[in-house]
Write a structure and sequence with these properties.
Bound molecules: MU-OXO-diiron
Largest sheet: none
Shape: elongated
Order of helices and strands: HHHH
Distance between the termini: 26 Å
CATH superfamily: Hemerythrin-like
Number of strands: 0
Helix content: 55-70%
CATH topology: Four Helix Bundle (Hemerythrin (Met), subunit A)
Radius of gyration: 16 Å
Strand content: under 5%
Length: 149
């Protein structure tokens, strides 16, 4: 399953700054996967999970800001998708913190589906919009939202 958390060009949304942030997301999810596989302590998993949530929240905010700046027409729908995803991870974190669940293959499957379905379909649409509309943030430029959360 580990290869499922490697960024490759099929995940490119056509906006370099957002691709960079997505790569960071893959890295943290890989860490989580490694923590799960190696049976690392709950503290390690909790730390990685916390970073995943923080990074994701920062990424979603940066993405939404970019879409708003560029007048992306499907911003509201995209924001709903983000809220659903973050709510699911927050619910998981709550259960994890309460000790009722652990990092499971099911969680990793959810994250994998998130990456493939959200980035490769929903995110890619704004990339197509920005490239079609000559955005200065489109692929091949270095401008854009900060890549570190
Ligand atoms: Fe890259 Fe819409 O999350």
């Amino acid at each position: 399953m580990e290869h499922a958390f490697e960024w490759n060009e099929t995940y490119s949304v056509g906006v370099d700054a957002m691709d960079d942030q997505h790569k960071g997301l893959f890295e943290i999810i890989r860490e989580l996967y490694t923590a799960m596989r190696s049976g690392k302590g709950k503290e390690v998993a909790a730390d990685v999970l916390r970073r995943l949530i923080d990074y994701t929240a920062a990424h979603f905010a940066a993405e939404e800001k970019l879409m708003a700046q560029k007048g992306y027409p499907a911003l509201a729908v995209h924001q709903v998708e983000h809220k659903i995803l973050i709510d699911k991870v927050l619910a998981f974190k709550k259960d994890f913190g309460a000790g009722t669940v652990s990092i499971t293959p099911e969680l990793m499957k959810f994250l994998q589906n998130w990456l493939t379905n959200h980035i490769q379909t929903v995110d890619r649409k704004y990339g197509a919009f920005m490239n079609a509309n000559g955005s200065s943030l489109a692929k091949g430029t270095s401008a854009g939202a900060k890549s570190e959360a």
